C-alpha cells in the first residue's frame, strides 16, 4: 500500500546545494523542512546500482537509516536511444573528475556518428525515492523526451542541456528560460508524481 508522508521534516540524500534549494522550495508550502545530507554529516554512499532505480533507492535508504528520518533521493541522467541508453547512470561519470561536459557531449556525438543511423532521440530521466527508516519506499519516475542536436547551443542549464532539444521545442534546454525548464523537466515530472502519491 502507498504510504503518505506525515512528518514535518525529511532528509535530502544529496550534498548538492542546488538540489537542496529546489526541493526545499517545493516542499516549504507543505510545511515540510528539508535538511541536507551534508548538514547531518551523512556519508555519500557509492552508486553501485546498474539502474536509476537502484541508485536512487540505495541513496534514499542509506540516508533514512543513518538519520532515522524519512529521506528523499534522486538519480538522473541522459539516455540516448542509438547508444542503447548510454550514458544513462554514467551521465556524470562521462564528464570525468573535471566535470567536463563539453567533452561528454562530444563523446555522445561521436557515438551517434559511429552508430551510423539517423536516430538522434534521447530522454532525460529522473527517479525519485522517498524512503523511511523501516525501509518502506515509494518511487516515482519522470521522463522528458527529446532529440540531440549538434553543435551544442545555449549558455543556461548544466550538463548535457546544450545538446538536448525537448519534443515540440526549437530551443535546447540551455536556451529555454530556467523557469520553463523547471516546469517540463524530468525532475519536475518525478517530483510532481511524488507529491501526488505521498504528500
Ligand atoms: P545526478 O542525478 O546528480 O547524479 O546527476 C546525473 C547527471 O545527469 C548530471 O551530472 C548530468 O550530467 C546529467 N543530468 C541530469 N539532469 C540533467 C539536466 O536536467 N540537464 C542536463 N544534464 C542532466
If you had to describe this structure to a student in words, what would you say it looks like?
The protein is an alpha/beta fold and about 200 residues long. The chain has one domain (about 10-199): Alpha-Beta Complex (Maf protein). The protein has 5 helices and 6 strands, in the order βαβαβαβββαα. It has helices spanning about 15-25, 50-65, 100-115, 180-185, 185-199; strands spanning about 10, 35, 70-80, 120-130, 135-150, 165. The longest helix is centred in the N-terminal third of the chain and has 16 residues, at about 50-65. About 40% of the residues are buried. The site of inosinic acid has 15 residues, from β3. Inosinic acid (IMP) binds near residues 78, 91 and 159.
Say how many strands there are: 6
Shape: globular
Unreliable stretches, pLDDT < 50, 5 or more residues? none
Give the ligands present.
inosinic acid
SSE order and pairing:
Layout: E1 9-12, H1 17-27, E2 33-36, H2 52-67, E3 71-80, H3 101-115, E4 121-131, E5 137-148, E6 164-166, H4 178-184, H5 186-198
Parallel strand pairs: 1-2, 1-3
Antiparallel strand pairs: 3-4, 4-5, 5-6
Keywords summarizing the entry:
single chain, 199 residues, alpha/beta, Maf protein, six-stranded mixed sheet, 5 helices, globular, binds inosinic acid
Short description:
With 199 residues, the chain is of the alpha/beta class.
Amino acid at each position: 500500500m502507498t504510504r503518505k508522508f506525515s512528518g514535518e521534516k525529511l532528509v535530502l540524500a544529496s550534498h548538492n546545494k542546488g538540489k537542496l534549494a529546489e526541493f526545499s522550495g517545493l516542499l516549504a508550502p507543505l510545511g515540510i523542512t528539508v535538511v541536507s545530507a551534508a548538514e547531518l554529516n551523512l556519508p555519500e554512499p557509492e552508486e553501485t546500482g546498474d539502474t536509476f532505480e537502484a541508485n536512487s533507492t540505495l541513496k534514499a535508504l542509506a540516508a533514512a537509516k543513518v538519520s532515522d528520518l524519512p529521506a528523499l533521493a534522486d538519480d538522473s541522467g541522459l539516455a540516448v536511444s542509438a547508444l542503447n541508453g548510454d550514458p544513462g547512470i554514467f551521465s556524470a561519470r562521462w564528464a570525468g573528475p573535471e566535470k567536463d561536459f563539453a567533452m561528454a557531449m562530444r563523446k555522445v556525438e561521436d557515438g551517434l556518428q559511429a552508430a551510423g543511423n539517423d536516430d538522434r532521440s534521447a530522454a532525460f530521466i529522473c527517479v525519485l525515492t522517498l524512503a523511511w527508516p523501516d525501509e518502506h519506499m515509494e518511487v516515482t519516475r519522470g521522463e522528458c523526451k527529446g532529440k540531440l542536436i549538434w553543435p551544442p547551443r545555449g549558455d543556461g542549464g548544466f550538463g548535457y542541456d546544450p545538446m538536448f532539444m525537448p519534443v515540440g521545442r526549437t530551443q535546447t534546454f540551455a536556451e529555454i528560460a530556467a523557469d520553463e525548464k523547471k516546469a517540463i523537466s524530468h525532475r519536475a515530472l518525478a517530483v510532481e508524481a511524488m507529491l501526488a502519491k505521498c504528500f
